[in-house]
């Protein structure tokens, strides 16, 4: 049990309560994007645009999350940008 709750300021898996709130917000944002994705299922272009918007929100969320945590570094942002670009390339191959 000490692996899950290993520090008084940390909660499950070493995340703080603030981290859990941040990640819950990310999940909500991605679920809303998925819902919009379903609403515009009649248009592949709008689905692609929704995916691009979600990717941009993901990068912005990452920047804000790491800024608030005090560990906003170039390396962190490059990872977020590469994941977003990879998802855009995959969606482009599917929808365009």
Report low-confidence residues grouped into runs of 5 or more: 1-6
Helix content: over 70%
Average pLDDT figure: 89
What would you call the structural class? mainly alpha
Q: Main sheet, how many strands, which sense, barrel?
A: none
* Run of helices and strands: HHH
Write down the Rg: 16 Å
Overall description:
By secondary structure, the chain is mostly helical. It has one domain. It has helices at 17-39, 44-69, 74-95. The longest helix has 26 residues, at 44-69.
Task: Please give the structural blueprint.
Layout: H1 17-39, H2 44-69, H3 74-95
Task: Write a brief structural summary.
The protein is an all-alpha fold and 96 residues long. It has helices at residues 17-39, 44-69, 74-95. It has one domain (16-95).
List keywords for this structure.
single chain, 96 residues, mainly alpha, disordered N terminus
């Amino acid at each position: 049990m000490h692996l899950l709750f290993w520090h008084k300021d940390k909660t499950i898996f070493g995340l703080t309560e603030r981290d859990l709130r941040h990640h819950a917000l990310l999940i909500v944002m991605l679920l809303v994007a998925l819902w919009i994705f379903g609403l515009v299922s009649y248009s592949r272009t709008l689905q692609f645009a929704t995916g691009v918007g979600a990717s941009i929100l993901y990068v912005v969320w990452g920047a804000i999350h790491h800024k608030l945590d005090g560990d906003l570094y170039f390396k962190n942002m490059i990872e977020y940008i590469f994941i977003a670009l990879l998802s855009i390339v995959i969606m482009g191959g599917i929808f365009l």
